[in-house]
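Quick question, first post here. What does this chain look like in 3D?
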Amino acid sequence: MIVTDSEKRISDICARWRVEGLSVGFVPTMGALHRGHLSLVEIAAASSDRVVVSIFVNPTQFGQGEDLDWYPRTLEEDCSSVESAGASAVFAPRADTVYPDDFSTGVHVTGISEGLCGAARPGHFDGVITVCAVLFGIVKPDLAVFGMKDAQQLAVIRRMVSDLRMGIEIVAAPVVRESDGLAMSSRNQYLSVEEREQACLISAGLEKALSLFRTGERNCEVLQKEFLAALKDAPLLRVQYVETVDPDTMLGVERVDKQVLLAVAVFAGKTRLIDNILIWSEV
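> Answer (accepted):
Ran it through. Tokens below.
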């Protein structure tokens, strides 16, 4: 497997693959990889001839006071993991490669990026989609894989790719969970034992809301309250938001009369965790 921090080298490698008639899949990451990330690489490998994984802790998507400085960096272990999952190359650029001194462009997607995590973390999605636009321009993939755990990110990326006619297929990968239901995240390692025990109630609450829907409940506010009730005896958890939205537009909905996304952000101690579940009605 090729590992490089050179923009020219990874660009040349991908260009050569395309000349050879090989399709290129891409998985952008910030490293500290877990089984959820590796599932994205496996999906990319099953859908394309060659897979590039980027590992770059992107400073522009962190807000003031967030965990940029102590976000885990485990490049050697990450490279070994993605090679086993089917990656052909790792692109691990320096910050001054992605953002040279004269860099002066930003990308903003209106509407979709402004609620939920966008409201809680101003500027976050501008940083996400700008770095993805840069990486897409370097790698020029045929497809890119993103996880459904970051459902709003997925929707924002899809809109950017569509609006800017990038010609990249965006593939959604299902949420990968721990045995107790907690959605896998690089930030889970920050949790204390007690926080980790209570954090599993997040997915349990989502499942309870889904079960209530299956009994016939269609009022989104009632479903949200069912989620909140599951966390009422967890003093280490603090809900930042719980909302039901259209999964494509991220606009709020009041009743489940089509597919909706129940999306939540919860602090376990100081660690912010996000999760979601799709709820579908054919009525």
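The mean pLDDT is 96.
Residues 186-279 form a domain with the Pantoate--beta-alanine Ligase; Chain: A,domain 2 fold (CATH 3.30.1300.10).
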